[in-house]
Design goal:
Layout (H helix, E strand, L loop, with lengths): L4 E6 L2 E6 L10 H12 L9 E5 L11 H7 L10 H12 L4 E5 L2 E3 L1 H4 L6 E5 L3 E3 L13 H9 L1 H9 L4 E2 H7 L4 E3 L4 H13 L3 H11 L3 H19 L2 H15 L1
Helix pairs in contact: 1-3, 3-10, 5-6
Length: about 250
């Protein structure tokens, strides 16, 4: 996975950069593991007071690398699917430090659902958000079925998670998913400004206040497990099998 994920510590901020532009930053299982490690190792590091997740200019992430995902998924019903992806979601659920997301371009699937675990989201004017699980015969993941209605309201969540509609940056801001919309190419510099603002605050007070604002980690992991079980069942469904065949046949065409 050389170069596909870059983790740097700058002052008191850990910057996690998806860097796979030829695949629109589609996330592999190795990348999930590396992101999880980057989050986990920050937890007991007093020198890290904030984190940024970014895809650089032009694209955040196209979501799962489906070929890699299918290769690592299991046909055994009692075995957890894509364990590195679940490990990443658990890391987000248990994370105790503020995370800023800098979204420039597309944020598809987990590219959108991970944002509900973040604390501050910047988006470029050209950013779009989509969770097209339904088009592959699948169901929501990342505790999004719990967090999206809580953030955006049930009806917006239904249109996004069930109908698979895409959300523009401005609509995402109105819905409460995005804090601020900036010009393309400026999400990461602006995220660094926000990080400096957060890092200048009393760290313990920030941690306690954040914990009060968020759902308990056990609520999140319970929903992650429930979704994962249903997701695994759906992967073996006739609907999903046919949808994936159609997807890959179009990709080859």
């Amino acid at each position: 996975m050389p170069g596909q994920l870059i983790v740097t510590d700058e002052d008191a901020t850990r910057v996690i950069t998806l860097r796979r532009p030829e695949k629109k930053n589609a996330i592999t299982q190795d990348m999930y593991r590396a992101m999880s490690d980057a989050i986990d190792t920050a937890q007991n590091n007093p020198g890290i007071r904030c984190m940024i997740i970014t895809g650089g200019s032009g694209v955040f992430t196209a979501g799962n690398d489906l070929e890699d995902f299918l290769k690592d998924s299991t046909s055994e019903p009692d075995t957890p699917r894509a364990s590195n992806a679940i490990k990443f979601l658990y890391s987000l659920a248990h994370n105790a430090k503020p995370i800023i997301a800098a979204v420039d371009g597309v944020a598809i699937g987990i590219g959108t659902t991970m944002l509900f675990h973040c604390d501050y989201v910047l988006a470029s004017k050209t950013a779009t958000f989509a969770t097209p699980f339904i088009h592959l015969g699948l169901v929501p993941e990342g505790a999004s079925s719990l967090l999206m209605p809580r953030t955006m309201g049930y009806h917006r969540a239904f249109a996004t998670l069930v109908m698979g509609r895409t959300i523009s940056a401005d609509d995402a801001r109105v819905a409460g998913l995005v804090n601020v919309v900036v010009s393309p190419g400026h999400t990461e510099p602006e995220a660094r400004k926000v990080a400096r603002e957060i890092c200048a605050l009393p760290a313990e007070a920030v941690a306690i206040s954040r914990r009060l604002l968020r759902l308990p980690p056990e609520d999140l992991t319970r929903r992650i497990d429930q979704e994962s079980h249903l997701f695994g069942e759906r992967m073996r469904s006739a609907e999903a099998v046919e949808a994936f065949k159609t997807f890959f046949s179009r990709k080859k065409a």
